[in-house]
Amino acid sequence: MAEAHQAVDFRPSLTSDPGKVELSAPVLQEIYLSGLRSWKRHLSRFWNDFLTGVFPASPLSWLFLFSAIQLAWFLQLDPSLGLMEKIKESLPDWGGQHHRLRGVLAAALFASCLWGALIFTLHVALRLLLSYHGWLLEPHGAMSSPTKTWLALVRIFSGRHPMLFSYQRSLPRQPVPSVQDTVRKYLESVRPVLSDEAFDWTAALAQEFLRLQASLLQWYLQLKSWWASNYVSDWWEEFVYLRSRNSLMVNSNYYMMDFLYVTPTPVQAARAGNAVHALLLYRHRLNRQEILPTLLMGMRPLCSAQYEKIFNTTRIPGVQKDHIRHLRDSRHVAVFHRGRFFRVGTHSQSGLLSPRALEQQFQRILDDPSPSCPHEEHLAALTAAPRDMWAQVRRSLKTQAEEALEAVEGAAFFVSLDSEPAGVSREDPAASLDAYAHALLAGRGYDRWFDKSFSLIVFSNGRLGLSVEHSWADCPISGHMWEFTLATECFQLGYSTDGHCKGDPDPTLPQPQRLYWDLPDKIHLSISLALRGAKTLSGNIDCHVFPFSHFGKSFIKCCHLSSDSFIQTALQLAHFRDRGQFCLTYESTMTRLFLEGRTETVRSCTREACNFVKAMEDKEKTDAQCLALFRLAVDKHQALLKAAMSGQGVDRHLFALYIVSQLLHLQSPFLDQVHSEQWQLATSQIPVQQIHLFDVQNYPDYVSSGGGFGPADDHGYGVSYIFTGDEAITFHISSKKSSTRTDSHRLGQHIKDALLDVATLFQEGQRLKRRCRGSGEEDSEHSCGSLPCHTGGSRAPMTPANF
């Protein structure tokens, strides 16, 4: 989501002195460290790896195999063909009375070796099967014989009842694409936005790069792909996120919203109690690996590595580079209210506190009349400051207030009890929804601890929201957690008739611990400067959220089109009408088909999309001509999406090549130009991954309304969208008020018009458009009528866009 801003703003800060080291030493050292980090992660997860590493077998299968061998031995049969006798002879001779024990040990050793060989064979076979991506190319509703055979084999080798990390050992590694293919695809992607002269110059730089530097840089990437778990992901985390020196607020973090139109209870402490309890239930299931791995098509597993750092995680600032601190467990949350910090324990001797007990603790904080200490109220603004500044101040803070700082950074997550209401209001629903998004993305600049993996925001009227730090994982991971939280706290935990959590308070609980900060005078100025910068950054962000309810995924499905490709192509039309020109478009998609994969960029502004947009703006073009071009644009986007998902994208490969060039101190004008590109339109779809948790048909309002992020460019837009049920789409748009070229509300209107204009190309679409335009904008915001559609024409496979 917010990664587009980070991707174009990173600057590798490499401290190696080229005059004192060999040319290849820095890159070899980085490759070595990448592999070392991978192996350290494996060792730290040894026990979980053992439990899941034997999958699809189980420890009981060893016992069954051992028993079968013992039974065969008792029946004077030798399934080992003499191997057990040799093993028995090699064991120490403990005397005649231990002769039987030697036989049992020999059988156990043989069973273990045979069991391990079978498991290894299963892992290798499954990894080879999962390396096949031909299923991605299959048209929707059709399946070739090779894919059917592959599907059957995957089901056979996948086993039953997998745990969250069961497939990690069987996932293939992300391949390094051909550098010639990457450069060709790159030139194709920039052709629509460059003049003939600029394109010829770029093509010449590309050819020079291929001739002089590409083979060397590619060789190092191949070397890293053999040694490390993933050839790009650790560098992506380090250079794009952890080495960024910008403020996390707006530039890196993103937000997730509550239900759009309903609030289960208006009692702030009760909503906080249920939500915190639900989040900790999710953590408990995560620790026990009871969360099912995500499976595409019901059988193709995605990498689960990012789930490990959801809780107990903090991004610690450094002068040149941050680092992620993850604790194995934390039994408290840090709470902020009216400028004060509290430590709230989440467990008692009998286990996790009940929702009612947590509500009691939060209500005690709300009722606490004590004032904040001097400068304490704005202390968290330091986490919104540039990272170098915050790193220096934190050193003094750690010396003077180590206990309080540890209580916040060592918490399971951060909770902000906001003193103001939020959400949709009847008086001004549009403006209140925009303010809600702004409060989640930036707040006041000092009421979020932006370093925490995520902050839970509970507003005074019971509304919820998340503010998520981006470096540790991508949106689908926090989105999965958020879906579980909303469904659990609302449908399973529930509330009593008076709006409180169910159950009884616990009067024996100790009071929440107030945290006190001994702030030296030299920190006061830093807090003031950080607060000023945070307010400036917050005040400059323009958020606009609107639900588009004229049609949704069901209409797009009827047209046999990919829902994501449909929206992306319509966004090109909307942006062209807004700015009068085409621009590079960043759409994030996942590469979690591979071990430790994160994201790839789909460059949605294609030549086919531009041809469609030009046709729509040409009054001489007929609807049939525009529709034909629209289908070509959708098909092209689908091809790019599938290539990105299967590890054949452009941008991560170019990013890794650029990092290697910097480590080798090789200047590449082509890679420098690629790195300097600006993404004036950054987009992302928020996937709904657990639709079974919600009853969309009977309770359509009880669906998450998605979230958003800041723009990637000072003169650009950030656009995210989520399909809320089958008949609505919620859009989140951001831009900067300081830009005279952008206006979030203006783009929002263009998006509405573009979607209706595209729908008009299909049969019965004109009737809908006339009805929508005739009813006025106020009515159209709340219209939920479905759109009949023409089901003929070309088909496009339905594949998930962003997971």
UniProtKB/TrEMBL annotation:
Lipid metabolism is among the record's keywords: yes
Keywords: Acyltransferase, Cell projection, Endoplasmic reticulum, Fatty acid metabolism, Hydrolase, Lipid metabolism, Membrane, Transferase, Transmembrane, Transmembrane helix
GO terms of biological process kind: carnitine metabolic process; fatty acid beta-oxidation
Major subcellular location class: other
One GO molecular-function entry: carnitine O-palmitoyltransferase activity
Topological type in the membrane: Multi-pass membrane protein
EC number: 3.1.2.22
Pfam families in UniProt: Carn_acyltransf (PF00755), CPT_N (PF16484)
Subcellular locations according to the entry: Cell projection, Axon; Cell projection, Dendrite; Endoplasmic reticulum membrane
Active site positions: 470 (proton acceptor)
Domain annotation Choline/carnitine acyltransferase: ranges: 175-752
Coiled-coil regions listed in the entry: none
Membrane-crossing residue ranges in chain numbering: 50-75, 104-126
Boundaries of every Carnitine O-palmitoyltransferase N-terminal domain copy: 1-47
Top EC class, one word: hydrolase
Reaction catalysis annotation: S-hexadecanoyl-L-cysteinyl-[protein] + H2O = L-cysteinyl-[protein] + hexadecanoate + H(+)
PROSITE patterns: ACYLTRANSF_C_1, ACYLTRANSF_C_2
Gene Ontology cellular-component annotations: axon; dendrite; endoplasmic reticulum membrane; mitochondrion
Region of interest: Disordered: 772-803
Function, as annotated: Palmitoyl thioesterase specifically expressed in the endoplasmic reticulum of neurons. Modulates the trafficking of the glutamate receptor, AMPAR, to plasma membrane through depalmitoylation of GRIA1. Also regulates AMPR trafficking through the regulation of SACM1L phosphatidylinositol-3-phosphatase activity by interaction in a malonyl-CoA dependent manner. Binds malonyl-CoA and couples malonyl-CoA to ceramide levels, necessary for proper spine maturation and contributing to systemic energy homeostasis and appetite control.
Family to which the UniProt record says this protein belongs: Belongs to the carnitine/choline acetyltransferase family.
The protein's name in its UniProt record: Palmitoyl thioesterase CPT1C
Lineage summary: Eukaryota, Metazoa, Chordata, Craniata, Vertebrata
Gene: CPT1C
